[in-house]
Sequence to fold (197 residues):
Amino acid sequence: MRIILAHYGVRHRTVNGKKPNSSYTKIPVLDINDRQINDSHIMVKNLAPVLDGKSLTPELIETEAFFTYKVMLSLEADTMESCGDLCGCGRLLGGCFGCLLSCFSCCLCCYLHGKLRKSKNLLSTEEYGVALGGKLNGKRFFHGEEMGIVDVSIFGGIKAFEEAGNSSFQTLMDSSPELKAWFESMQKSVSETVKDF
Fold:
């Protein structure tokens, strides 16, 4: 979510940790006009008319949902099955939580191995990569010839796995030449507006 707000130049305040005066404990949380939104897919749908000037098409809504509820979970499942990838997440997070994640990565990996993929009935990351690349349908971006909020959202989600040095990132990129070309194009475009990923 931060990459979307930074890319579009939206003034915002980042609160690390639990949201003040709220019982909700998961992240991200976005407050828009006194309305709390707790799901990144719903956030993108609500921000699209404001930031892109128009609502998402049904195809873009489906693409964003597919990424959020399938591809992202598959990347997370792959990460949970690799001590090295969990350590990479710890390095990226930093601080006490990152240190703990790195220290206990092998224990977590043994305990969590296969549980997320099985509980959510997920396909392989390769299969999701092929399907996501297919949604580009010959276009430069998911929005067409110009990037839009769904492109930035998906890029931000994938970029975190690259920054952590996770093998799931490479698995996803290797699964689809179209997706890899899109990611490289996004890398160039977004780096012009977002200096700190």
